[in-house]
Structures are given as C-alpha cells and as structure tokens.
Amino acid sequence: MTALRLEVSNPEFTPKDTQFVTVYSSNTGRRHDISIYNAHLIAENAPVVLLLHGVYGNHWVWMNLGGVHTVYDQLKQQGLSDFVLVMPSDGGVLEGSAYLPLSNGEDYDRWIVEDVRLAVEQTVSAVSKESNWYITGLSMGGYGALRLGAKYPSLFKGISGHSSVTCLEDLKFFTEVSLHQYQEKNDELESNIVYWCKKHVAELTPMRFDCGQHDELFESNNLLAKRLTQANITFSYEKHYGGHEWAYWHKHIATTLQFFDQIQRQS
C-alpha cells in the first residue's frame, strides 16, 4: 500500500507519551486527525487498541473527556499488557459519519480500516504489520466497532462496544440529520451488525458489549443481544447502572482493556 501523506507531532512539544497525526485520506478526499497514546513505547509488534468516538466528538474526546489514558496507566500498574491506544476522528462529516461508506463516494469505513492502520504503522515504531489490533467505541463509535469488527474479522482480535448505537435508526436520539444522508454505497445490509456477524460467523473474533440501564439506547442494545442470540452468534452482553455519559464510559473502558488483555495473553 502506498505511503500516506501526513503530518506528525514533535515529541518535544507534545504531551508525554502522546502523538498527534493528521492524515490525508484518498478514501474520503479529506484530512483527518488521530490521537495516539503510548506512542513512544519501545517494543516489537505491540498490540493496538482502536477507540472510536461518538456523535459530535472527535479524535481528542477519549483522552480529554474520557480520561482513557489515565485508566490505562492505572491498569498498567496492576499488570495490564502494553498497548498502543489509537483514537481517530470519525471523518468530521455531518454530525457523525457512523464510520460508513456513504453514497457520495466518501468511505469512512476504509478510512478506519485502511488509512488509520497504515498511519499508525508509519509513525509508531512499536507497531508493525504483525501487531494485533483490537477495536472498541462508545455510542456511534460502539456501532462502528461492532460493525467493522464483524465486517473485517481478520483485522481485529477482539471487539467491544459501550452504549452502542445498534442501527442507523438509533441516530435519531442524537441528531436531526436525515438518515438518507447515511445511505450506503451498496444496500441496507451494509449497515447491519447482525448481517456481518452471520456472514462471518466462522471467523468472528471474541465480542462483548455493555449498556447502562438508564441509557436511551438500552432497549436497542437488549434487542441486538436478542437478535445475536437468535442467530447463534457467540458474544457477551453486560447491563450496568448508568446513562449515556462520560462517567459511564470512563468507568467501563477498563473492562474492555482487560478483555483485550486476556485475548492478547492467549494469542
């Protein structure tokens, strides 16, 4: 794959262990940003956790609203494996791209699975083509993680979602943008999480998701769990106290990191 055009932050002027990258994506025809934590790790083939944000958000929110780096550092002190945390923009289109290929030709699906991956390999010395990748997200990012993880099972060793949007109709809770704006370049199956899980059931990697009982997406997550069970898909689903809020995600991202750590230790 051709090297990307990008700008990379200078460690001398950047917060400790953090790197910022701006990438031109031929898949979208736009520039996008990525925040990376533990970017200067000295290791070989270090595993990567890809964290996708929700509607209205951008690459910085996982750290600067969710404090994911502080959760990671606390878990590291307790024995968590080394991971590189990669937090990309969703693409900055509409109030959220939903990480989908759109009918206008802008492909925010491939921005994540192709461009972000290559940008990290080009700029983080500890990450190589042999590194294991894991994917998680919150809200719209949870939808992206579950859908992309199921669509591209060979690219991800584990999948996790928090308070996930489970279908395009769930976006109505957060945006007034017409769902017609999210028409996929293929057909309605493109956006369907259960479709991709069933299509790739034999290759599907370990998957989990959770939702707070006071979240507007709680019933949608319950329905997704029911449909996956009916389709004989293996997964775990946890229900917790809490709503659609950063306090919830700050707390429960620890479960995802520990879930990925368990998989990594067995790989």
UniProtKB/TrEMBL annotation:
Gene3D superfamilies per UniProt: alpha/beta hydrolase
Signal peptide from the UniProt entry: none
A Pfam family hit: Esterase
GO MF term list: acyltransferase activity, transferring groups other than amino-acyl groups; hydrolase activity
SUPFAM superfamilies reported for this sequence: alpha/beta-Hydrolases (SSF53474)
Keywords recorded for this protein, A-Z: Hydrolase
Descriptive protein name: S-formylglutathione hydrolase FrmB
Organism for this UniProt entry: Thalassotalea agarivorans
Lineage of producing organism: Bacteria, Pseudomonadati, Pseudomonadota, Gammaproteobacteria, Alteromonadales
